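Q: Here's a chain of 307 amino acids. Please give me its 3D structure as tokens.
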Amino acid sequence: MYRRLFKSLTTLMRFWPIGLFLAILVACQSPTTSRGPVLIDGSSTVYPITEAVAQAFTQTSGAGDKISVEFSGTSGGFRKFCQNQTQINNASRPILITEMNSCIQNTVPFIEIPIGFDALTVAVSQENTWAKDITVAELKQIWAKAAEGKITRWNQIRPDYPDQPLLLYGPGADSGTFDYFNEAILGDTKGARTDYTGSEDDEVIVAGIAKSPNALGYLPFAYYEAHQDKLRALAIDSGKGPVLPSTETVQDSTYQPLSRPLFIYVNAQAAQENQTLRDFVDFYINHAAEKVAKVGYIPLPEEGYRL
């Protein structure tokens, strides 16, 4: 069912061999284990999944306040993670080479664990009566650096759209959602326009889009799902006709190019030393499918969790 997307996911796991090799080296050292706090940061996209898992874990284990889950964006989270300030980083994109080098320099061995899929969603307000779908070419036209200060009205996207201001909302530059969207639509993250309202808090993006019929933005699928009374998703046309984001269109790989994998990155050495962290990660993997679906994302195929 997920065959093509799961195959694409496995090609992204280019850092697994290094992470696992380092984890094995650490495991061979057999450090003394103890129970301690677990500090988690990173992606606001992955945050609701990890928060749901943490709540269930503390209710089951009695770990109480030992599990702390915050969000500062995938990039912001990796800065903390690779400085050994956190034990888990939530990530809505794979780790970058520069981030991996930072982890290596600071002796932070890591394991990359895919936990589910997202259908990154382009949305407008429910009050918007004209936009139903959008092409990848139109998204590029809107969000490219060349559009900054120039593509500012709806009728510049399509002539039959109203001559109204185009109000843009999206993730800030520290967000993995920002990175993934611009890589998928523009081909890189440095060529994106900056004259839009950005935030690492997806609820801020929801509020911005919802308050005006002239607004357009992109955000994780779970945040759209939770606010369908305020937002309306645009079908994405990548050349084969408009396709709306949904569990089904991610599963059959027709929602392109904005379907993406979600991850947690675990400090492998900390997992050897901290029994609470190790127990939490085991619990996370065993309950990921349920929690991913519950908060509005798409679980991996069963094979993914076994791996």
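Q: Can you summarize the key feature?
A: The first strand starts at residue 38 and ends at 42.
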